[in-house]
Model the fold of this input.
Amino acid sequence: MAAVILQRQRQRRKRRNCKERVVTIDHLTEQEVVSGYRLDKASNAELKGLCREDLSPRTDRFCSLQSMTKVLTGLRVLAEGDFLSEVADLHGTSKATAATVVDEFVNSVNLRLRNIRFQTDRTELNKIKRKFYQKCRIPNIIGAVDGTLITIQAPTEDEAAYVCRKNYHALNVQAVCDPDARFTDVIAMWPGSQHDAAIFNSCGLKNYLELNDIGMLLGDSGYPLRKYLLTPKLNPSTPQEVEFNKYHSRGRIVIEKSFGLLKSRFRTDSLIQCRGGARAIFPCDS
Done:
């Protein structure tokens, strides 16, 4: 009798209905993929392979979420800054699932993607120095450093410390880039009220440059002049000083360009607010 009742209950149980999910981008053109996800098809496939171990379904249950769906969901949030409900509808998931997926995706990228590393090889450093010299006619330059403000939601702890000089909540993110506008060092852990010079003085890169005479960084007037950090001349009074500032600006502008490219491609405020943060650090800081 009990077996008959159990069989009837199973018959009455409705089959689980899942939304149609996006598991591939083959039906989209290259332009549509770049517009919606900021990466081309090849880069999406490479990112999927890189994060496969972290994002692959851990069970064979019905309607388990595939790794490509997670990659596309995460990229969409970072690229467009869309509401989670809209991203969930677009990729066939629930809002709660989309929120969990974004966290998983960002944490996996932080763990697996190791493309931001300061160059220490002498041969590569010489190539960087030559490119900077061609750009700004200043020798021995290995990078440009600056900070940028990334908007965040007001935190629940030490809220006042995150209010920046522009009167909104932010992180002050320090970055160094090479002459090709590629980031070589990024620190995204300091509140918006922190000064650029204070962040640099406490970072591992500064300690490394002090101990190793490998070249100089270009920084703006907010940084102190050091043997490894070249800043512009304040209140130039001679034609030579004016000319120096002009070439210094020509070399340092690459870091401004890098920030512009980053913020135009990805919504960096969405990136920072994900659990785990977006933090690529110099080895000395780890």
In short: The beta strands are 141-151, 170-177, 183-191, 216-218, 229-230. DSSP finds eleven helices and five strands in the chain. Residues 67 and 147 are 34 Å apart (CA to CA).
